Amino acid sequence: MKENWEIKKLGELGEIITGSTPKTSDDRNYSSDDYCFVKPSDFNNSIKELYKSEFFISEFAYNNSRKLPVNSVLVTCIGNIGNIAINKIECTTNQQINSIIPYEGINSKFLAYSVFAKKDYLQFIANAPVVPILNKTNFSNVEIPIPPLPIQKAIVKELDVLHRLKELQEQQLVEYDNLAQSTFYSMFGDPIDNEKGWEVRRLVEVAPVNSFKGNVQKFNNKFWLLNLDAVEQQSGQILSVNLVEESEINQSTVKFNEDNVLYSKLRPYLNKVVIPHTSGYCTSELLPLLPQKDLLNRLFFTLLLRSQSFVQYIQEKTNGAKMPRVNMDEFRSFKLIIPPLSLQTAFAERIEKIEAQKELIKQGITETQLLIDYSMDKYFG
């Protein structure tokens, strides 16, 4: 398949330009927002098409800069090396970015995929251990396999279809999360305004802090230790499991079991609320709560704590507090709506159906990613 492919250095595939920053001491450079000025903050961990930027410069600055035509390939080369973007507007960049203006016969998107496939290698050859820097010379000498232009276009089409499929699947997950939230508000109203007049009780009365007192389950003779970094922000999904030896369990860790709901005490992460399905230990950033079964359905309780209104309520109530954590005095004053348990249960049944659909989509995302990885390895490995 690759018999007509050539191995070429990046410097042979296009003009490579390292960006620069117009002097801030000259007011003329920033007197108006005429052209996009791209920085690493405009990138993400995929190949991004740039139609706008976070920062801008004036026409005066742009005329004295290293201009980039549309469809250049932009690569971060300091710090987080190997993030890729293709500019869909004329722009310039700062010095942390090397850009490739492709020569004739080189498809920009194919080149972007090729460089993205070399991300680990780019990071490996960066020459500074503390702040990695990939200089222009080393960057220009990176070798890329290049097929004839029609094959480049065919490969791009295949990869674009797979990435678009993954984007649509990920958007479906977002829409299901939005459906869960809208279902909550439709059935119960705003939990803070309480326009439906539900009974209200203090959180500590209906879901007291309750560290599990029994024996914690072992996995291969180790304990499950959950920390806040292992919890996804919006969904509360546990992303990773950390198994530790008994000697690593100390006074700062807390027991929990499958009856608890784990609530984040850190203000920036108040919507990290976890329903565990086994016993284990958690770090002190997570507070084990025990919702009273005759008052609260655990799934309803979790969605209530994670709701935008409740998170905003806690943030406002603790606004100005010096500590980054919610303290226990604050916690005791938090108020919850308590709708009829039958209505909470009906809500939970709807959410369980939504979660089942989400699991199917997540399986699809995993399969799509395997196809992407296979194709990237086939063409660029």
- The counted number of beta strands is 20
Whole-number radius of gyration?
Answer: 26 Å
Strand numbers in spatial order across the main sheet: 2-9-6-7-4
Uncertain runs with pLDDT below 50, 5 residues or more? Answer: none
Terminal CA distance? 13 Å
- Tell me, briefly, the overall form: elongated
Give the assembly state of these chains: single chain
Structural class determined from secondary elements:
alpha+beta
Per DSSP, the total helix count is: 11
Largest sheet: 5 strands, mixed
The average pLDDT is 91
Fraction in beta strands: 15-25%
State the helical fraction.
25-40%
Please describe the topology of this protein.
Layout: E1 6-9, H1 10-13, E2 14-18, E3 35-38, E4 47-50, E5 55-57, H2 59-63, E6 73-76, E7 84-87, E8 91-93, E9 97-102, H3 108-117, H4 119-125, H5 136-140, E10 143-146, H6 149-188, E11 199-202, H7 203-206, E12 218-219, E13 222-226, E14 242-244, E15 254-256, E16 261-264, E17 273-274, E18 280-282, E19 286-289, H8 298-306, H9 308-317, H10 328-333, E20 335-338, H11 341-380
Parallel strand pairs: 3-8, 4-7, 13-18
Antiparallel strand pairs: 1-10, 2-9, 3-5, 6-7, 6-9, 11-20, 12-13, 13-14, 15-18, 16-17, 16-19
Helix pairs in contact: 6-11
Task: Describe the structure concisely for a colleague.
The chain is an alpha+beta fold. 37% of the residues lie in helices and 20% in strands.
